[in-house]
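Hey, resending since the last one bounced:
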Amino acid sequence: MQQYHVYGLGAALVDTEITVTDQNLADLGVDKGLMTLVDQQRQQQLIDYLSDHLIAARRASGGSAANTIIASSYFGASAFYSCKVAADDNGAFYLQDLRAAGVDYHHNGALEDGITGKCLVMITPDAERSMNTFLGISEALSINELHEDAVKASQYAYIEGYLVTSDSGRAAAIRLREVAEENGVKTAISLSDPAMVEFFRDGLQEMMGSGVDLLFCNKAEALGFTATDSLAAAVESLKAVAKNFAITLGADGALVYDGSQLIEIDAHAVEAIDSNGAGDMFAGAYLYAITHGFSARQAGQLASYACSVVVSQYGPRLRPQQHEEIRRRILQA
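The structure tokens again:
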């Protein structure tokens, strides 16, 4: 009998969100709408530049896959997360946040010295998020952080595409997929960011092997990964690498392919103020739903509504009680 609905693997990052203008991004040389890896010195330069005149949001545990796994847990899934944090204040904060969300995690002996990863999330007035990430000890995430017994006891193994940037992280992602495939566990992956698709496409394909059971991406990632400028062509190409997939389309909703038909998912009209975590929330809600008897259409509807709520407030996560409110609303619809 399966113990976990979802097992996740990804970076452990403590997020700080700051509202900025497009001119701020231009002055700082920040690529808008992308995740950019930076060293600690560069990240501190950005924080110092912005700290005097802009208000930072509260500290929050993050990382793409972590946001997804925590969301799935709050919706009601049993979840496990493998990551790497250091023996510092942010590391202790991060693990406590996982515990509070009901997520089990891999802990192999004493935490190592180092710096827990940090992500500076800059939000512009159009709600777009631009991220500068210092991976810290997450850059050393490796096969050692996998908990293969937990993988084998899961229904889905979920991989964040950001792992492609690290040799050891990519190797861990590949091993996770292999263990899942060997034990009848379904595989899921997120393409994570247009920059990952543009610069690490071969590595992503290596992580996916001969194909995955479920793929998550947005429109830009879908077009980039399939090297086309047509969404219809991208849909056909994705069928060759994923048995099922979901393409988020922002204000236009989403497209979900359930293995036999393409399903259009309506968006929910909201005033978006922060797109950080929207794709992660979609994946988390969707994974919860398909492991709890929802059809692909119902899963897409739940995920789409959850996205609309998360982009209407600051931060990549919902408050715990919001998950049940969203689930109840969709079930009653």
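Residues 12 and 63 are 5 Å apart (CA to CA).

Sorry for the duplicate.
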